[in-house]
Amino acid sequence: MTKYEIVFKESAKKDLKVIERDDGEYVSKILEKIEFCLGEHLFDRIGQCSKKKMEGKEKAHRLHVQKRYTIFYTVERTKEKTFVEVHLIMSYAATHKRYKRIDL
Questions:
Q1: Within a 10 A sphere around the Cβ of 89, how many other Cβ atoms?
Q2: How confident is the model over 39-96, as pLDDT tens digits?
Q3: Interatomic CA distance for residues 50 and 69, integer angstroms
Q4: What domains are there in the chain, each with its CATH number?
Q5: DSSP designation for 12
Q6: Rg (CA), the chain
Q7: What are 6's strand-pairing partners?
Q8: What's 11's DSSP letter?
Q9: DSSP string of 14-74?
Q10: CB of 71 closer than 8 Å to CB of 63
Q11: Cα(74)–Cα(102) distance, rounded to whole angstroms?
């Protein structure tokens, strides 16, 4: 159980399936990083979590996983809880080609 609920959008689920097919051993690292950095330390600044709010985007953030993958997510707050919506999981190279055009 994590402090913050994590919700995977359909696009992120599809991304994980592709990564599992191409780089299966890395899926567990991605999921562990999401759980640790976004589920437990969402608002903490710690060296293990390379998180950053995306410039010019109201709610969008990104999390790097060892300069191999980038996770794009939004943070939603209600009176009852705060949760994270994971929208995209992309390779580091693909991310930098599309970075300015990503809109969550």
A1: 26
A2: 999 999 999 999 999 887 788 899 999 889 999 999 998 888 999 999 999 988 887 7
A3: 11
A4: 5-101 (3.30.2310.20)
A5: H
A6: 13
A7: 84
A8: H
A9: HHHHHHHHHHHHHHHHHHHHIIIIIII-TT---TT-EEEEPTT-SSEEEEEETTTEEEEEE
A10: yes
A11: 12
